[in-house]
C-alpha cells in the first residue's frame, strides 16, 4: 500500500448546477483553494503541517452536492489534525464576515472570457460526450452548452452566502488516511472487497463546540488583486492571415557561452498565446545520485517559494511547471502572452537569488520525496520493467534503489553548499514560440545570462562537461543479455524485450516504425487473445539518446520464460506476415503512418513540444517527421524482410537482444533458505538463461549470483581477466555461455547479468547525438 497522509473534509451543500451563470461553488472553492498570501494553505504551510490543498465541488446529479477539501499532511501535521481543521473554520468565518466580493468575482469572470475565447481544441469524443450530457438539462439553453463552466455573468451575493453557511462542523464528515494507523489504531475493521483496514469514530463534541466558536486570525485574509490578469478584453483576432502551408522552424536567435535561444513566431494559430521552455543543463548531476537528489529537492523548495507567484499567474491563464531530469532541470511557461515575459523574468530572478533557509521545510520535502521513491517501487510491473530498460540502456542513469540508498546522506547543509555550485556550472537553452516579439525574447535571454553571472558567478562550461551527457550502451552483435529483479509487492510478472537496431537515420526510423505498425496488431492478437498471456502488452519502437530499437513488453501471470517463448514464437512468424501483405495492404499501412507523421498539431503547445523535443535531444532535426514521411513512401516489402533477417531473426548477424524481467513478490507464507548464496551455480544459470523465476530470490532482490567474468584461458585457475570494452565473456565460473545458433556455425553470446553497472562498465557506448543543424557551439 502506498504511503500517503491525507485529510479530507466533506460537506453536503445545495444543488448549484442550475445556477451555472453565477456558480457560487466555484467562487467558494476558488477562495478556499487559493495558494497566495493570506490563504489557508499558506497559513498551514508556515506551521509545516500541510504540503498541498485542493477544494472542489462534486456534482452527483441529485438534489444535493458534496463540497470537498483535501489536504496532504506532513508527519507533524498528522499530529495536529484538530489545529488544521480549526484553521479551516477560521478561514470560513473570515469569508462570512467579509462577505462575497464583486472584485474577486469580476476577476473570475474576465479570465473565463479569455479561456473560452481562446480555448484550445479538445478531444472530439470528450466534447461530444460532455455536450450530450448537458443537453439533457432543461435549464441549460443550447447556446450555452459550449460555454458551460466558463459562464459567470450573474453575481449573486445571497446564493454565495447560503453556500458558505453549509460549511459548518455539524455538517462535516472528516476522513484521515495514513499508513501508520495500521500500527497505532485499535479495533480496526476490515473492508470486504479489498481488505482495507479502517475505523469509524465520532468527532469529539468539545472539538465541534470549539470550531463553532473559533476566533479570527490576522494571517488569514482574502487575496489581493492579481497582477497577471490581462489589462484588456480578449481581442477578436490577432491576424487575418491563413495558416502557413509549410510553417517555418525555430531559428537560432542568440548564442553565447551560457545561453542559446531558439525563436519562432506563431504562423499557424494566431492567438495571443506563447510558450517559453528553458532547460538548465548541469553536468555535475550525472556524477553521482546525491547531486541528482539535491537538485530535485532544490526544485521542490523553489516551487514552494514561488507558490504565490505561480498560482496567481495560473489564475491569469499562464501555466508553469518544473521538471527534473537526470542531467538538469526544465522550466515551462505557456498561456496568454501579454504578461508572460514579466513572469519568466520574475521567476528567473528569484531562482538565481534563492538560497534554502528553512531546514524544517527541507526535511518535510525530503520526506515527501523519499516516500514518493518508495511508492515508485510499488508501481505496476510493466512500469517497473520499462524503467529498468532505461536504467540498463543509459549511462549515468540512476535507479530508484540508488536514490533511496543515497537520500539519507542528503542533509540541509549539503543542499546549501550544492546550490551555488550547481548554478555556477550550467548551460541554458531556451525556446520562445508564439505571439512574442523576437526582441523581447533576446532581451529575456540576455537578462537571464546577466543574472546568472551576477548572482551565481556562472561561467562557460568546459568542452568535457558539454560532452558529458546521457549515452546509450552498444549491445554486441549476436548477443542476448538477461537481467531481472523481484518486485517487493506486485503478484504478477513483467517481461520487457529490447532488440537494438542502432543510430537513428530518417530511413531507418521510418523502417522501424513501419515494421512496428505491421506487427503490433498481430502481436496483440497472438499473445493476448490466442495465448491469453496478459492484457497489458506493447510492440513499439524505443528511442533513447539517438539510438533506436524494437520494444516488446508484457505483464502476465505466467512465468517470464513463457512470455519470452511467446515473443520468440511471434517473431518467427513476422516474415510470413510481411510476405502475405498485398501491395494495397502495405500501401494502407504506409498511408496510415504517413498521416500520423504529417498530422498538424491542434494547438500551439503541441507544436512547441515537437520543437522542444528536438532541442532537448540535441539533434535539432525540426523537420524530422516530414523527412520520415519522404523516406516512408519509398520503403518496400523486401526492405522489411531484410531488416527482420538482419536485426530480429534468431541467429541474425546484428541481433542484439536485452531481456529485462520483473518477477512477482514472494508470498508471506513462503520461507527462504538460510544460505541461498550457496545455491548451485549451474542450476541457477539454467533457470536464468531461459528467464526462469528462482524461488529463492527474496523480495526486492536482483536476479543472479555473483559471477566472475573470465577468459577462456584461465577459467580453471579462477583468475579474472576482463576483455576490452564491448566484449562479452565466453564463460562464467567455468560454465559456457555459448550455444549454437540456428542456421549458422557461429556462436551466439549469452550472458545473465547480475549487476547492471558492471555490464555497462564492460560495454562501449554510442557517441553523443550529433546536431542536424550547422551552428557554432560556444
Which descriptors apply to this entry?
778 residues, six-stranded mixed beta sheet, globular, 25 helices
Uncertain spans: 671-746
Q: How would you name the oligomeric state of the polypeptide chains in this document?
A: single chain
Radius of gyration: 30 Å
Helix tally equals 25
Query: Which strand order do you get reading across the main beta sheet?
Result: 15-16-14-17-13-22-21
Tell me the overall shape. Answer: globular
- Mean pLDDT across residues: 83
The SS-based structural class is alpha+beta
Portion of residues in helices?
A: 25-40%
Distance between the termini: 50 Å
For the largest beta-sheet, the strand count, sense and barrel status come to: 7 strands, mixed
Tally of DSSP β-strands: 22
- Report strand %: 15-25%
